[in-house]
Amino acid sequence: MFCLTFIAGYKGNLTEHVLTVVMSLVFTITSLIGFIYLLLWQTYVLRVDVILNSIEIAFICLEIIFCIVCIIVFSRYICSYITILL
């Protein structure tokens, strides 16, 4: 899952393509749900699991914030480009 998220985010950021960044956001949210499952609903959770999953959830939340910012910036760029052409 991480490879799909990384490749979609990398390509979307380089090409400034909104759909690819949205795909990366969907994959990231899927990973977030998996880590929340491992943290909260797993049968036996060690303290190390709690620490590592909390760190990963923090990084995933940062990635979600950056994806949303990229989507906003790229969509504004597309809208301004379309109004220039018209």
Beta-strand content bin = under 5%
- What's the helix count? 3
Low-pLDDT stretches = none
Along the chain, the helix and strand elements come as: HHH
Q: Based on Cα principal axes, name the global outline.
A: elongated
- What is the CA-based Rg, rounded? 16 Å
Overall pLDDT score: 87
Q: Strand pairing plus helix content: what structural class?
A: mainly alpha
What's the end-to-end separation, in Å? 40 Å
Q: How much helicity do the residues have? A: over 70%
Layout of secondary structure:
Blueprint: H1 2-15, H2 18-41, H3 47-85
Helix pairs in contact: 1-2, 2-3
List keywords for this structure.
mainly alpha, 86 residues, single chain, 0% strand
Describe the protein's architecture and organization.
The mean pLDDT is 87. The longest helix has 39 residues, at 47-85. Helix 1 (2-15) runs antiparallel to helix 2 and helix 2 runs antiparallel to helix 3. The protein has helices at residues 2-15, 18-41, 47-85. It is built from 3 helices and no strands. By secondary structure, the chain is an all-alpha fold.
Write a brief structural summary.
The chain is mostly helical and 86 residues long. The protein has three helices and no strands. It is elongated, with a radius of gyration of 16 Å.
